[in-house]
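fyi for ur records
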Amino acid sequence: MGREDSHYRPEGVDGRKFGGPGSGGATGRVPVPDAQLPRAPGDPGRRPDAGSAPVGRANPQQYGPDPVGRPNPQRYGPEPVGRAHPQSYGPEPVGRPNPQQYGPGHPPQYGPGHPPQFGPEPVGRARPEQFAGRAEPQPYGGGQVSWPDQDGRGGGPVGRAAPPAAPEPPPARRRRRLPLAVLASVLIVVLAAVGLAVVRPGPVAGWLGSEAVAPAASAQAPEPDPPAVLAGPDPNAPVPSADGVRAALDPLVRAAALGDRVNVSVADVTTGKALYGSGQDAPTVPASVTKLATAVTVLAARGPAYRIPTRAVAGATPGEVVIVGGGDPTLAVDKNGFYPGAARLDDLAAQVRKALGGTAPTRVIVDSSLFSGPVYEPGWDDDIPTGGFGAPITALMTDGARRDAEAARKNFDDTHGAAERVSQPDLTAGRQFARLLGLSGDAAEVKRGSAPAASGASAAAGAPGTELGKVQSLPMVRLVDIMISDSDNVIAETLARQVALARNKPASFVGGAAATDAVIGELGLPADEISLADGSGLSRTNRISPSLLTDLITLAGNGSHPELAAIFGGLPVGGWSGTLDDRYQAAVTKAGAGVVRAKTGTLSRVNAIAGLVTTADGRLLTFAVLTDQAPEGTLDATRQALDRITSALAGCGCR
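which gave:
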């Protein structure tokens, strides 16, 4: 049994009010093999076959090969998009617009030069083994299961020991590709491209640009400014030397609290030059750091402005309405939804009633067939559904499958983000929709089915398959922000399926993993250094190399793929937000407060951190530190050991 990192960690053995014992796992899918594909002579960062063949491991489950290097087919259109604070459901923090005011026909007034704000990151989870090569079972199979416990601030990890990891391969030198633009410019470019802007807090302005921006109107007193956050990286600042970084990090990497297997990659974000590596190409359990790969690939595959539709079409008989799930996990029932600014079923119902005219709705059919395979990853422990941090993954759901969205929002701090989830999210959403259409009693009961095919553009209104209404999710840039800020596992799994859909693969756990591999290869990165069972990091059989993580972060900031820069908006900030809010407090780590910005990952005996740091000279670096054999019962010490590594980068010129 494993747990993922959490923003709120109360005292206690496990730090959670929910949970139960873990259980044995199913056989895992084979992780990344020890041997990487050979590097071309004289070009240690690329494979000799790059550009001529698919990159990475074979596609599972007879998914055909995907071309490598094809241009990104997704483009984003002119529709203005916004950014919501992912988890302030009462008084909003300073610098965040209120996303709930963005109703249909009222897009926020966005313009270029208004980059994202930074918000906290509450919770995430991690789960055990994936399986390999099996046909995916049908959804809703199996018996009753229950969730495990999550991290606690005062307690150590709870759960099964990690399975033995593959022996570390010999380190291979890597060449970082493509010259890099200043990260601030990239952020402004991508936000302007999708028409997105959010007010920034004061100290952040130095990093993202100095234009004056009026604060969002609010009746609340302003929050105090946070510490300087990645303030003013200087592209002309001196580059740390490899020897200088090695001298600073080697003693820290050997800390006993990190265990026997610590894999590290550090690179310069402006030049892409590798500055430090220790087991940097070794496949390592990433835990919730997996969400960085999910974020990059869904932004590449769908684009930041893409919105997930939920549709209603006319059924086979008069008055029958089919609600068709498109995979939006944030869909709300009404204005009291969990995710601010989400699409709403009451809006969809109003469209349907208008489209039907004088025909009264008689019944609702639920079409959630877009997603296939099991609703839980087959290798996850049996106690997933009842712990409050995950849910069955279906193409139609409301509020991330929370049973009571309003209560979950109000009690977020008290429950640390945990909330009871429904066991059949698609049917629950269908019943909610039926009630909004005015159905009651037996008529409000729903069943699964398929939407009839539309008979053509000339079909009469109300003919089977005719679209009666459609609502759309928050734009992808905001879904990614919420996923990273909140470490939201349900959003992560649905976004992995969006990658699969964009690459014409089944929208399932296996299809999402295969599509993620394909997109990693398309981006020119070594897909043989990633092997995933899911998109959230809940599986202990996920494997990612530290150098691939720094490659992903570098690529998101180098200007060649400006749409990827959206991953930075949700990253927690050392000593201020998310899973890093109570870290970087000790004297030996305080150099990292306000200048380390990273995604964390935690399972029992697994600790990871990957992100960005500005050095004392103003140079922006990317790092990934992963350890998957940490000693039992040393969570706080292990985290401080990780923080000392990143703080050393923040506090030195390393020249």
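The chain is about 20% helix and 10% strand. thats all i got for now
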